[in-house]
Write a structure and sequence with these properties.
The structure is a homodimer of 159-residue chains. By secondary structure, chain A is of the alpha+beta class. The longest helix of chain A has 14 residues. The first copy, chain A, is globular and about 65 Å long.
């Protein structure tokens, strides 16, 4: 029971998609543990370099490189701040593109909690009503959508 | 406007979470482009080694190593098959843990389509009603949940 395929995805002789596939484009960008941990921290409200280092356990060098990369990819924005009698520093905040990855990061947490449970328990709840929050595929008509009922279509964009 | 934090996540002196964080546990496993491409293909119905190689563009060696890794991590299961006058071979299918990652892979596609558009267009639709499919945070009371209304709680599991 897999997804249903249309367009360039149909047919068993389908070639490598490479850059034609937006899943590949996204994964080339985010498929790195350090990236996911920094996005997790940004979604938790961490803004400052030293806190990113402490809370992720990444080295200063990896943190600096990956923060720079996330800024250049447009997932974080760098904002100057200055405390009294200190030199100017920068803090980091999620852009819209960065915020759009937060549900994916939370869905990884939900998956980890279900399939790799340990001594700690991670729960996502809705602040307004207290009910548990899940990541789910839903359609614009409001239906919950099961995997076999998703049609994935890849097509040449109309000019 | 970030997530709301509770339990071990509350407090600005919060230390590195490391293995205590299920997001980290999941990302250590899936944060690799080759893994995401192989999961994409498995969700598209690809089962055989040669097809995984052709359709992902990964080398045979990377494909073999990563398929082995996905089997040992319990995301794929290996099933023997034999065609007439051929030696026994194996095909690969998603386990429940693997299927649970498919919405995340599709959400990466949705993100890539929105934030890294190219000449091809990826669309997800609901087979039953034709409406567009999105990945969204929803609560068990049926509300669509915005990022600032998600409470993330990490706690020691009760014995």
């Amino acid at each position: 029971m897999t997804l249903q395929l249309k367009g360039l995805l149909a047919g068993s002789d389908r070639p490598e998609l490479g850059d034609a596939c937006p899943i590949d484009r996204a994964s080339s960008l985010v498929a790195r543990r350090s990236t996911i941990l920094l996005l997790r921290e940004a979604s938790y409200g961490t803004t400052r370099f030293d806190e990113f280092v402490t809370r992720t356990g990444l080295t200063e060098s990896v943190t600096a490189n990956q923060l720079r990369n996330l800024v250049s990819e447009g997932l974080l924005v760098k904002v100057p701040y200055q405390e009294p009698s200190q030199r100017q520093r920068f803090e980091y905040a999620l852009t819209e593109a960065g915020h759009d990855l937060v549900p994916i990061v939370m869905a990884l947490g939900e998956w980890g909690e279900k399939h790799r449970p340990r001594t700690n328990w991670l729960g996502l709840t809705h602040a307004d009503c207290g009910a548990r929050v899940h990541m789910a595929l839903t359609c614009e008509a409001g239906h919950a959508v099961r995997e076999p009922d998703v049609v994935v279509s890849l097509e040449h964009r109309q000019p």
